[in-house]
Design a protein that fits this description.
This protein has 178 residues and is of the alpha/beta class. 37% of the residues lie in helices and 17% in strands. It has one domain: Eco RI Endonuclease, subunit A (ECO RI Endonuclease, Chain A), CATH 3.40.580.
Length: 178
């Protein structure tokens, strides 16, 4: 027997009632504040930088961004968590498509994809999810934050920082005189 609109509206627990994802998001922001030195790093909670990148009206508001002050290079983070059932991983894929990469590069001018998805709880531990991540997300653009372990996250943030943020953008090739 399927669910019709009357039965759906009578449910005690409606879609959107589960707000436990806020804990994961808050844990992530607090962890960044513990890991990164504020004299070198700017941490922004729910940055609005990308909120209108689609036709000037729509966009993305990730959970956080970090900017390395000496270079001005930035990385955005989306935090996803769920229990043993759901599709948060599939919804995260929109930030890792070829076209999104192109659009984001066009808006930011950055020479790397500045978006990481942080997987929490079942998304970070259950094989039904973890085995798929390498097929949907590029290496170092997703992180399995198992048990909200601060040391694991610190190591990953250091990797991201050294790979993309702490080095200045490469100089464009110079034209040879003719």
């Amino acid at each position: 027997m399927g669910m019709d609109s009357r039965k759906l509206s009578e449910r005690a627990k409606q879609p959107g009632h589960d707000r436990t994802f806020r804990t994961s998001e808050d844990n992530f922001i607090e962890a960044l504040r513990e890991i990164l030195d504020p004299s070198e790093w700017q941490i922004e909670d729910h940055p609005r930088t990308l909120s209108r990148i689609i036709a000037g009206r729509y966009g993305v508001v990730p959970e956080a961004s970090i900017t390395y002050r000496p270079t001005g290079r930035v990385m955005f983070f989306e935090v996803k968590k769920q229990g043993p059932a759901g599709n948060a991983d599939e919804r995260a894929c929109k930030h890792h498509t070829v076209q999104f990469y192109k659009e984001l590069q066009g808006v930011t001018g950055l020479d790397y994809h500045p978006f990481v998805t942080v997987m929490c709880e079942s998304l970070a531990t259950l094989d039904r999810y973890t085995v798929k991540h390498p097929f949907y997300f590029e290496e170092d653009h997703y992180f399995l934050w198992q048990g909200y372990d601060l040391d694991l996250l610190a190591d990953f943030i250091a990797l991201v920082a050294h790979r993309w943020l702490m080095n200045p953008a490469p100089e464009p090739p110079q034209q040879l005189p003719r």
